[in-house]
Give the backbone structure.
Amino acid sequence: MKTSKEIIKKLRSLANPKNIEGMVRFGINPKNALGISVVEIRKIGKEIGKDHKIAQELWKSGIHEARILASIVGESEKVTEKQMDKWASGFDSWDVCDQCCSNLFDKVSFVDKKIRSYANKKEEFVKRTAFALIACLSVHDKELKDKDFEKYFKIIKKASTDERNYVRKAVNWALRQIGKRNKKLNKEAVKVAKDILKTYKDNKTARWIANDALRELEAEKIQKRLSFPS
């Protein structure tokens, strides 16, 4: 598979319409989907290796799985702000958004700038991108300091009243992941969650985000792991 056309042909040969029904049950947009598992997509990505040009061509195909594959083979150091904005504005399903954030976008040098920008956007999936990136950075980037995450508490709190499903879940995800990074950030995330409850006590979405985060962050399992990190 040396060209994007060959890769797309390979993807189409693996199409499984039955799997699309399962995707829908998980809230994944079935439009232009082939029903291929992420595990299979990653195998293909490993065969291809990193290739910026192919990533661009796969994205342009509009095929659901090809776009996930594009994020896997993409080269973060070659991603421009224009490309990132274009891809983010094209997100129409939470899984494509999250895969792009986890595989590619959380590694670009201007990720902080984009988090702050996208957090203020009106488009549901663009705004989700901001908080998915925070969550991914919390897990992947071991070099970042506590202060690098503390600065995101303000935008998490601000977005906690956004009732749109894919935004509120990402806001919750970001808060939980920051709070699971270490003991200090856990205490701060718990404090932020309680502050959200106090500030927006009459808002259903904010209450859900905060209570769900507290349920995990204060759980014995998490507290024990943070007290005795491996």
Notes: The chain has a mean pLDDT of 96. Residues 124-140 form the longest helix (17 residues). DSSP finds 15 helices and no strands in the chain. The CA atoms of residues 23 and 30 lie 7 Å apart.
